[in-house]
Design a protein that fits this description.
The chain is an alpha/beta fold. The chain has one domain (35-258): Glycerol-3-phosphate (1)-acyltransferase (3-Layer(aba) Sandwich), CATH 3.40.1130. It contains 9 helices and 10 strands. The chain has helices at 21-24, 32-36, 38-58, 67-75, 109-119, 138-153, 175-183, 232-255, 268-276, and strands at residues 8-10, 60-64, 80-82, 101-105, 124-127, 157-160, 187-194, 197-200, 207-209, 214-219. The strands form 2 sheets. It has a 7-stranded mixed β-sheet, with helices on both faces. A hairpin with a 6-residue loop joins strand 8 (197-200) and strand 9 (207-209).
Amino acid sequence: MARAPSRASKGCNQMDAQATPQQRRLTPRFLKPVIKSEGFRKALNLVAAAYIRFVHFTSRWTVVNRHVPLSFWSEGRPFILAFWHSRLMMMPYCWDKRVPMNMLISQHRDGTLIANTVESFGIKSIRGSTAKAGHTRARGGALAIRSLIKLAAAGEAVGMTPDGPRGPRMRASDGIVVFARLTGLPVIPVGFGTSRRIVLGTWDRFIIALPFARSSFIWGEPIYVSKTADGDALESARLQIEEELNLLTAQADRSVGAHTIGPEPRPVRALAEAGQA
């Protein structure tokens, strides 16, 4: 999930900024136990949830293609909700809170803040990630995926950020298409945009929505992954999810007059392989 930013600025042209050792030492030692305490974290969760509610209450909202999730909710059919990591803050309000939802959230300490905050809105969290095999988090991720598969089989929806918890920004990982293949659930993407925001200098360009804004959710159509999909078919589905999410997110930004934020450039090797395909 989102890592602590080194700085924040308004606008969308913010470059990455890494804290220097001198800057990191600015936190007094006597404050560190307070910051790490359970009481401080609970207070932070309450403040974060209250702020999100305030932003939602003071903003003017537009929801496009809401009939797509409504058809699933009304018929009791689960699906995989997909959105970019940077747009996570206001996502509890895209969901019908009467419908059970489970979010895959990383085991990073920042993930704890996010998990506790979204739980304030009735969204359950499953801790783990879609790390590749051999990664130090792979075991936790595998356990989380197994838990999510059981929940999906029980008819509950699942939420994922295909580019989390470490990026590349706005590039879908294989995890979401593999999960869709295993469960048979469709992936429904949604984009979020707001006219007043702060764009952080984090890997994902995390967006902090501001009050008194024009905000928009734009839903896409379901994307299905065959249970027999393999190799090229999985890559095609992954690319479809990525392109659709980028399209919806850009449309949501433009609909409220916000500058669009593009995905991280693909590595040179990936571009070369795509050219050989």
